[in-house]
Amino acid sequence: MRPPCGQPPRPPLPTWQHGGVTAATHSSLFPQVPESADAVLDGLDPEQREVAMALHGPVCVLAGAGTGKTRAITHRIAYGVRAGILQPTSVLAVTFTNRAAGEMRGRLRQLGAGGVQTRTFHSAALRQLQYFWPKAVGGDLPRLLERKVQLVAEAAARCRIRLDRNELRDVTSEIEWSKVTQTVPADYPAVVAKTQRDAPRDPAEISQIYAMYEQLKRDRSVIDFEDVLLLTVAILQDRHDIADHVRRQYQHFVVDEYQDVSPLQQRLLDLWLGDRDTLCVVGDASQTIYSFTGATPDHLLNFRTRHPNATVVKLVRDYRSTPQVVHLANGLLGQARGRAAEHRLELVSQREPGPEPVCTEYADEPAEAEGTARRIRDLIAAGVPAGEIAVLYRVNSQSEVYEQALADAGVPYQLRGAERFFERAEVREAGIALRGAARAGGNDSLLDDAEGLPAEVRAVLSTKGWTTEPPTGSGAVRDRWESLAALVRLAEDFEQAKPGATLSDLVAELDERAAAQHAPTVQGVTLASLHSAKGLEWDAVFLAGLNEGMMPITYAKTDEQIEEERRLLYVGVTRARFHLSLSWSLSRSPGGRAARRPSRFLNGLRPGSVALGTRGAAGGGGIERGPGPVAKRGRRGPARCRVCGKTLTDAGEMKLMRCDDCPSDMDEALYERLRDWRAVRAKEIGQPAYCVFTDKTLMAIAEAVPGSAGELAGISGVGARKLDRFGTAVLAICAGETVEEGLGDAVDEV
Asked: How many helices (H) and strands (E) does the chain have?
């Protein structure tokens, strides 16, 4: 365990027999193999020891973040093997990633329990399928399809459905989800409707593609990754002799990360077990963050119901994080709702006190990234290794501004779970398109009606999938849009920093950024999405972009989806050992309207905020304000409906300053005149109507009826540029003047 910066190393903690406990998550590189079975138990805390000695009947280990769950279950297996209670070859331990399986295998070897089968669900099933296929079916096992995307593309083409590359990825993911939830093609539309799942295409179309995909696989005698589980389940169900063979081989089962089991994996586990109950499961319902892939915590939560005689052990001693970090994590879950929240674990830190978590409010996203980079640079200067620092965010497209800020600060970094921003396919394609438009200059018809650099970029990127409004739902289509939107924002910021900049100037800037970020880096600060950070830990963690709309993400609509977003933030918080920083920005770009709000999940956790209906909510940490205009402003209160007083979170409602379903005092006739004017103006400039003003902005204008440029500028959606361009005409219409005759003159003053 590394001491805090500036403090001398602490002596190693003694074992429980001498009044202490050994670290749960750290070990020396080459530990000595315990001399005996009893020696395997040395250094375990009372609850871990109880897990290790519970070798009979069903066992359920509810293990909070940082409580040493892998340590507990590996010592359980090793103790059973070393004591002669378990035969190594009779134990099958399964988890979800090759990395986790490899780590478990290595720990068992260090404990003198080699020979135990430690695999992922798919690896274990494939091994059995390869062995039993000749006997169960005959001949060789069909070829395993490494990448199903090409076959899905062919299936879509045969169904006469056009999919771009990102839609193809999303539809492929939907097929995978359908198979692990045991949903057949014909049932897919109904299941989507019942579960309120956001489908990337019309569910009927996906059902059609799914059915054709399955037909093509049969015609070509190939199977996919999910078929490995499905076929193993089918053989074990149909051939009792083969099921008996497997059950004679494996007498004891251990399942790690049990909260992430899919219905199909649970079915396979049931078949492995038969009528026995020699099962140990380990999990934490509060870390269920992969439900979009078919994972469900229901099997963990229902374990006691299925096995009334089960031994249930709770691990709540947190050896990873300081009391300050644990306090905030407990407070975050204290506000949770739903079934998983009812089973939450209250963690108790076993570490000495550390610094308070820091909440920082910044004026805008670039300021947030730059402030984060400065703090990281200070930590490195204080002795924290760059490899022990992470910046975590909700979506991969957020990485670009942090890549740039760290590069500018001279801090090495590495991306985990995603390509570097400038290496993403859509960003490379956009770069090529922008470079071509820059070369063509005035000869590119795309730019004929575009006025200014941002408008030119939007016009070019609209051919690559960018739209003014983001696509609904998550997945590859949304990821692509986020990447292109980041380029649009970059163009807007670039023009603001360098008025009069051309498209060629922007292309040169992009090339410089790409070159700087492609330079080889040594071990550096980790940039990662919250999902890809699961199972990892760092000395210092920066949770960035914690704004409403990003955390929780905009497309999280149902209560269950919102609670999963809360759990995702909880996972992020519990990755930190010592330093924890949480930040958000009030505006997207410098000089922008400060209309953003910090995540609702921080209510009651950040100083000055109140949590409604909290259960044991935690406080913690001083609040800092990043540099910039925000430091000079007083605290902004939440946006509230001017009719009923309810706090507003939806961007459209915040524009109107009222709830959508609250009574409107809008001048309907004025609204219609504004719409008519907008339609004519949009036609003149060759852009969609919403590029002039959105419907919500027109409604806000019709409700406020501004009488001056200052009043008009105060309406959300009317920026300085639109005020200069359209303000004269809008104010004339609001004043009841007839502007049809001189419409062009009224609105062409730029």
From this structure: 29, 17
Do the Cβ atoms of 717 and 742 come closer than 8 Å? no
pLDDT at 189: 92
What does the block give as tokens for 280? 């140990």
Distance CA 458, CA 295 (A): 38
Measuring CA to CA, how many Å separate 73 from each of 14, 59, 89, 297?
21, 11, 17, 19
Q: What is the pLDDT of residue 160?
A: 92
Residues 377, 408: contact at Cβ < 8 Å? no
Q: Are 50 and 25 in contact (CB under 8 A)?
A: no
Asked whether the beta carbons of 340 and 301 are under 8 A apart, the reply is yes
d(Cα 601, Cα 679) in Å, to the nearest integer? 41
Closest-CA residue to 479 (of 399, 406, 572): 399
Beta strand 413-416 with 348-349 is unpaired
The pLDDT assigned to 592 comes to 76
Would you say 588 and 489 are in contact if contact means Cβ atoms under 8 Å apart? Answer: yes
Please give the angle made by the CA atoms of 520, 525 and 531, to the nearest 5 degrees: 110
245, with CB counted inside 10 A (0-12, 13-18, 19+), is: middle
**H-type alpha helices, 335-441:** 339-342, 365-381, 399-408, 425-440
Q: Tokens in use for 305?
A: 């119901």
Please identify every stretch of the chain with a pLDDT value under 50, giving residue numbers as ranges.
Answer: 1-30, 517-522, 613-638, 741-750
Please tell me the predicted confidence (pLDDT) of residue 195.
81
pLDDT confidence of residue 8: 38
pLDDT of residue 326: 94
pLDDT at 610 (0 to 100): 66
Q: What local confidence, expressed as pLDDT, does residue 540 receive?
A: 96
According to the model, what pLDDT value does residue 542 have?
97
Q: Across the chain, which distance is largest between two alpha carbons, in Å?
A: 96
Q: CA 627 to CA 715: how far, in whole Å? A: 26
pTM of the model: 0.66
Cα–Cα dist 362/352, whole Å: 31
Contact status, residue 614 vs residue 600, Cβ threshold 8 Å = no
Amino acid of residue 237: Q
Of 581, 497, 571, 487, nearest to 536 by C-alpha is: 571
- Residue 362 to residue 293: CA distance in whole angstroms: 34
**Cis before 552? omega within 30:** yes
Residue 327 host element (H or E): helix 323-334
State the first-to-last Cα distance of the chain, in angstroms, to the nearest integer: 62
> CA–CA separation, 447 vs 424, rounded Å?
25
With 0-12 / 13-18 / 19 or more C-beta atoms within 10 angstroms meaning exposed / middle / buried, residue 10 is exposed
The per-residue pLDDT for range 683-713, each reduced to its tens digit, is: 887 777 777 888 788 888 888 888 888 888 8
Q: Is 382 exposed, middle or buried (0-12, 13-18, 19+ CB in 10 A)?
A: exposed
Sign of torsion over alpha carbons 299, 305, 307, 313: positive
